[in-house]
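User: I'm putting together a teaching handout on how sequence relates to shape, and I'd like one worked example. Could you take Fumarylacetoacetate hydrolase family protein from Kaistia terrae, show the sequence you're using, and then write out its predicted structure as tokens right after it?

Assistant: Happy to. First the sequence, then the structure tokens directly below it.
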Amino acid sequence: MTDRPIEPSYVVPPLPRVSVAVRDSTDRFPVHRIYCVGRNYAAHAREMGHDDREPPFFFQKNPDDIVEAGKPAPYPPLTADLHHEVELVVALAHGGSDIAAENALSHVYGYAIGLDLTRRDVQAEAKKGGRPWATAKGFANSAPLGAILPATTVGHPAAGKLTATVNGDPRQEGDLSDMIWSVPEIIAHLSRWFVLAPGDLIFTGTPAGVGELKRGDVVVGAIEGLGQLEVRID
């Protein structure tokens, strides 16, 4: 007789596991947590009124905030100033704590293009009051995300043009080489604060040029070597 594990009985129906597409594959990437780096490009830090280089800081979004490519992102309630922030996103295959920067890239599964949607007016009020940014950053549908490209295919991009347009008009432009903290440094710093896990995503920050979005706007974010992500705001 074989002992079989007893399936737990849940008091409410469990939600399905969040996952995102892997480019040119039927496989999917299971999402554990979403970490985001604040003000990681000097020009963006300056446009937000801060110094060029400061120790990295982090905030989080929720896995079910993700909007996959090809789907619209609804305009959120309780804001009159929704902003776009196009970013390189890192997908982790391996976790750990106190990861050395020189070993960090061995933890990476791949990369994607992400859009950090932000209730800028809500964020501004939170900053004034010294309050957390959760309602400004971690709301439903705030993390549109393109398909993940494995590092075995695209390598580990440390340079490459990053742009964002809205309705065809240029908004953001920068280069991955402009990041204040590189991907290996971000992973190393983050792993001192959190025990990272397979399935974690890291939004690595955005260059200057962030701006307002309205219903009906179409945002196109592009990163050299990774393609582009198109998102309509409904």
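A couple of points you could highlight for students: The helical segments are 42-47, 120-129, 134-137, 151-154, 183-193. The chain has a mean pLDDT of 94.
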